[in-house]
Design a protein that fits this description.
Alpha-Beta Plaits, DNA polymerase, domain 1, five-stranded mixed β-sheet, 4 domains, DNA-binding, 460 residues, alpha+beta, Dna Ligase, domain 1
Length: 460
DNA sequence: TCTGGGGTCCTAGGACCC
DNA sequence: TCTGGGGTCCTAGGACCC
């Protein structure tokens, strides 16, 4: 807790949808919904225009289509979101080296640790607060100029209050909560406003007659610990009286890596389940190795037809990034689970991560065994391109046409794909339809939105 | 056409050890 | 001569966040 509101929290407004509107002029001012487009998809982000129809994050896509049938429905373009996120995080790092990203579109910044720290330390209260407000407004303007997007900023004396403030600032706003005002601001809020209180905790509290944050503060720590358990109860009590000492900490290493897939139709037979587990484990290892890490614990996740979820894990003697070991372990775990009734989701993860790989004899043995089958695998690999089949065009996807230039996929079906030819800096573009296997049409990298550094090719 | 994907942290019981 | 008390590791599950 500090006497100056020198912790800020930035939250980009409707981030994924806003990136799409910035990249696709024809979608500006229109409802845009980004998420899983399959039968079992959910909404990742809805633009403000779509929210007016009641569409929100985590809503099943089928429901979103009923509520807002005229929206543009797009699958995510994470490479583009990462590019814009890098630009925004770069702007934050100009304010302080102490930047703590919470996701692609959200971060805390500790201004006292940065170039304005000394000025803040010397300033009297009023001057200091004016400086924070000026820095925050400049930041918002810079983000707007560099990306065309809006972000909301909260400034306060703690992470808790900065996050509450940015929530109040949405959309496209700035709110400062002066140190000393914490309890007045929090008191009337519903308990759900506190981070860490979700639907389950809300229910427990409601049954105990606790509805507002002021109710929690009056109840006291010991009773909250009774209701919620030691760590959660104590944490919720501290928050309820506006206390939060957590420091802003720069980027931390991931503690686990996992991949999972929900299937369009539940998997019913064991062989298919085992095959999918192998594919997932291989994908998981690729990500693990790309991050230069290895892990000791392999986790298998299974969601059954009735949405009940179970995990099975096995801890190895030492960390590994060996595909054969991790795939075999995941397979072994999968062979043990009851799949009666069907499986809707499978996941494979690796935890207990280390920065190095410790070769063990088991990995060695498996590698030797794998070498024996090398010939067979090579044959399978050669079959791969043929098995890939017709190209899949995803709504929202960037494409490039040999004559017509850059555009994006508006939709596809019955052997056709519809493309709109426009760029972030063009006006709304025209639509053309092609055969899905038209050789002039190719998938493309996302284009940079404005002055932000895009892919190397774009700069050259 | 009910319910994604990638994470974090906490709890609780049993094994095992001193 | 009915039998403690921690600590740590592993496993499973659950709440929560974006």
């Amino acid at each position: 807790m500090r006497s100056l509101p020198s912790i800020i929290h930035l939250d980009m407004d409707a981030f994924f949808a806003a990136v799409e509107q910035a990249a696709k002029p024809s979608l500006r001012g229109k409802p845009v919904i980004v998420g899983g487009l399959g039968g079992r998809g959910v909404v990742s982000t809805a633009s403000y225009e779509a929210r007016k129809f009641g569409v929100h994050s985590a809503m099943p896509m089928a429901q979103a289509r009923r509520l807002c049938p005229n929206a543009a429905f797009l699958s995510g373009r994470f490479e583009a979101y990462r590019q814009v996120s890098d630009t925004v995080m770069g702007l934050l790092r100009e304010l302080s080296p102490l930047v703590q990203p919470l996701s692609l579109d959200e971060a805390f910044v500790d201004l006292e640790a940065g170039p304005y720290g000394p000025a803040l330390a010397e300033a009297d209260h009023e001057t200091g607060e004016r400086l924070v407000l000026a820095l925050a407004e400049d930041l918002r303007a810079d983000i707007q100029r560099r990306t065309g997007l809006t972000g909301s900023v909260g400034a306060a004396g703690s992470k808790l209050m900065a996050k509450i403030a940015s929530e109040q600032a949405k959309p496209d706003g700035l709110v400062m909560i002066e140190p000393g005002q914490e309890r007045d601001v929090l008191g009337p809020m519903p308990v759900r406003a506190l981070p860490g209180i979700g639907p389950a905790t809300e229910q427990v509290l409601r049954r105990a007659g606790l509805n507002t944050v002021a109710d929690l503060a009056e109840t006291g720590e010991s009773e909250l610990v009774q209701l919620l358990g030691r760590a959660h109860g104590a944490g919720v009590y501290q928050m309820s009286i506006g206390l939060d000492d957590r420091p802003v900490v720069a980027d931390q290493d991931a503690k686990s890596v996992s991949v999972e897939d929900t299937f369009e139709v539940d998997l019913a037979d064991r062989e298919r389940v085992l095959r999918e587990v192998e594919v997932l484990a291989a994908r998981c290892v690729r990500r693990l190795r790309a991050a230069g890490r290895s892990g000791r614990t392999v986790v298998l996740k299974v969601r059954r037809f009735d949405f009940s979820t179970l995990t099975r894990s096995e801890t190895l003697r030492g960390p590994t990034d060996d595909d054969a070991v991790i795939i075999e372990t995941a397979r072994r775990l999968a062979a043990q689970v009851d799949i009666t009734g069907g499986v809707r989701l499978l996941g494979v993860g690796v935890a207990q991560l280390a920065d190095y790989t410790q070769e063990d004899l088991f990995a060695q043995a498996l590698r030797e065994e794998a070498a024996e089958h090398a010939e067979t695998e090579a044959e399978e690999a050669e079959e791969e391109p043929e098995a890939a089949g017709p190209r899949r065009w995803m709504p929202g996807q960037d494409v490039h046409h040999a004559e017509l230039g850059p555009g994006w996929v508006q939709g596809s079906g019955v052997g056709r794909v519809t493309v709109r030819f426009e760029t972030p800096w063009s006006g709304p573009g025209r639509i053309r339809t092609f055969a899905v296997d038209d050789r002039a049409l190719e998938p493309a990298r996302p284009l940079p939105l404005r002055g932000d550094a895009g892919p190397e090719e774009a700069g050259a």
